[in-house]
Amino acid sequence: MKDKLWKEVIDAQERLQEVAHVTPVFESSSLDQIAKSSVTLKAENLQLSGSFKFRGAYNALSALSDEERKRGVITHSSGNHGQALALAAKLLGQRAFVIMPENAPTVKREAVAGYGAMVVPCAPTQSSREEKTREIIEQTSAAFIDSHDDLHVIAGQATAAVELIEQSGSFDVLLAPVGGGGLIAGTAIAASHLLDSARVIGCEPAAADDAYRSLATGERILDFTPRTIADGLRTPLGKLNFEIMQQLVDSIVLVSEEEIVRAMRFVWERMKLIIEPSSAVAVAPLLSGAIGGNGERIGVILSGGNVDLDRFFAPIEKTSAGKD
């Protein structure tokens, strides 16, 4: 299975070449001191569409048959995968439909529409997403592209870790956020082929700990209610993702909501990088001391930077208006 997965990653690299950004890596002496380790951050928040999701979406759409492309593509997403799919479809000349929960961040809904996809609202539940998706597929025959439980999507996401290793060399530990599992599964595939003994650790909100509990029990948990600020990580694990994680991921570390906010603020203030809460989940264990402390070389994938800034700028705008 590992050889087949790795071949898919190589194919994804070829499809994404000269299309996806080779995103930069960053280091922070302050973070190194706190973590007592040498930390390198892979800035996928600077990727096309604002997250690593573009890699998987573009690779999956590129792998479709001519007949499937004619029918268009569809997905359900709280934001980042929807944006990525919409942009990839635009670049490849395909029509796209994105089912989005009504409570998805405004900035993400507007971005999906801005890339030319049709946004279809639904209630903020997994069952509502799936029901609305089936309804649109019956009407359009569009090809469904899962946000994570898809071999081509996973292979595309793996290219972020491949690039990180090519840019910065060997690592003792690789950290990535866990939502549906596409990024952590892809990261684990890359590490299993390119690093001799690195530990791959998924980072997950304690308020959405389905991956942690799934690996602990050996059974994929689908029925749960996430209550986390990390909106991109509220998705249940995919079947294929879970199988890969069981084989290749060493552990899952949980972080609190307070730790997520602290990590996001740290990266904004100290590194001048705008990351979203889902990205901060992979930085939080380094600040809390849950990971690090032994001088390891640690690689972290910052998954995205699509933040709804209205809540940040509204008080400033209100104050400014009051002075006029």
Structure notes:
- The chain is of the alpha/beta class and 324 residues long.
- Helix content is 50%, strand content 15%.
- It contains 15 helices and ten strands.
- It has a six-stranded mixed β-sheet, with helices on both faces. A four-stranded parallel β-sheet has the order 5-4-3-6, sandwiched between helices.
- Helix 3 (53-62) crosses helix 8 (151-168), helix 5 runs parallel beside helix 6 (106-114) and helix 8 (151-168) packs across helix 9.
- The termini are far apart.
- 52% of the residues are buried.
Distance between the termini: 65 Å
Mean of all residue-level pLDDT scores: 93
The low-pLDDT segments are none
CATH topology description of the largest domain: Rossmann fold
Taking strands numbered 1, 2, ... along the chain, how are they ordered across the largest sheet?
A: 1-2-10-7-8-9
- Specify the number of helices: 15
Tell me, what's the shape?
Answer: globular
- The radius of gyration over CA amounts to 19 Å
Q: Return the CATH architecture of the largest domain.
A: 3-Layer(aba) Sandwich
| H and E order | HEHEHHEHEHEHEHEHEHHEHHHEH
Give helix % range. Answer: 40-55%
CATH class of the largest domain equals Alpha Beta
Short key terms for the protein model shown above:
six-stranded mixed β-sheet, alpha/beta, Rossmann fold, 15 helices
Give the arrangement of secondary structure elements.
Layout: H1 2-16, E1 25-26, H2 29-35, E2 38-43, H3 53-62, H4 66-71, E3 73-76, H5 80-92, E4 96-101, H6 106-114, E5 118-122, H7 126-140, E6 143-144, H8 151-168, E7 173-177, H9 182-194, E8 199-205, H10 210-217, H11 239-248, E9 251-255, H12 257-271, H13 277-280, H14 284-288, E10 297-302, H15 310-323
Parallel strand pairs: 2-10, 3-4, 3-6, 4-5, 7-8, 7-10, 8-9
Antiparallel strand pairs: 1-2
Helix pairs in contact: 1-8, 1-9, 3-5, 3-8, 5-6, 8-9, 9-11
